[in-house]
Automatic annotation (TrEMBL):
Pfam families: DUF3781 (PF12636). It comes from the Archaea. InterPro entries: DUF3781. It comes from Methanobrevibacter thaueri. This is Conjugal transfer protein.
Length: 79
């Protein structure tokens, strides 16, 4: 159900200027982090849970944290 909400609002998913560097550093990626995180969310094996005001996308070797009201990617890190 939570994954459905995120996928229905995928065009609203974004991050802050500070978030860009933080996500790239934490995940060890050079690519644009919002597209990267959205592609991870869209994978069949991604699992989305909601705790408090955040969604947590658990996929492959990482956890992506997305605010549930603003759809801002707060952070992402490897497990």
């Amino acid at each position: 159900m939570h994954k459905k909400v995120l996928l229905e609002n995928v065009e609203k998913i974004h991050t802050t200027e500070m978030g860009i560097g933080r996500i790239q550093k934490n995940l060890g990626i050079d690519e644009e982090p919002v597209s990267y995180c959205i592609s991870k969310l869209k994978q069949d094996n991604s699992i989305v849970n909601k705790e408090g005001k955040n969604y947590y996308v658990d996929v492959d070797d990482c956890i992506i944290t997305i605010n549930s009201s603003s759809f801002t990617i707060i952070t992402a890190h490897k497990k």
